[in-house]
Amino acid sequence: MRRKVKNKQSPPVKVDEIYKVKIIAIGSRGDGITKIKGFVIFVPETKVGEEVRIRINKVMKNFAVASVEE
Do the Cβ atoms of 7 and 41 come closer than 8 Å? Predict the structure, then answer.
């Protein structure tokens, strides 16, 4: 019997891309959380409900980290 292998797609974001997003939650370390195409992005120094422009700083396999664009 074959085991199912998760589809290994690349993240939908890249470093230095800019997006306008809404913060939907706060992570355990206090960072704001948003999602792009279901992909989690942590945005430090934001609050739930804020609509901000972000720049992607770091992309990992399961999440990304971004900063607020002024």
Answer: no
List the beta bridge partners of residue 26.
32
Residues 7-35, buried b or exposed e (16+ Cβ, 10 A)? eeeebebeeeeeeebebeeeeeeebbbbe
Cα Rg, the chain, nearest whole Å: 14
Average pLDDT, consecutive stretches of 10 residues, N- to C-terminus, the chain (70 residues): 66 97 97 97 98 98 95
Q: What is the reported pLDDT for 70?
A: 81
pLDDT at 65: 98
| Residue 58 buriedness (CB in 10 A; 0-12 / 13-18 / 19+) | exposed
CATH of 18-68 given 3.50.50.60, 3.30.230.70, 3.30.9.10, 2.40.50.140: 2.40.50.140
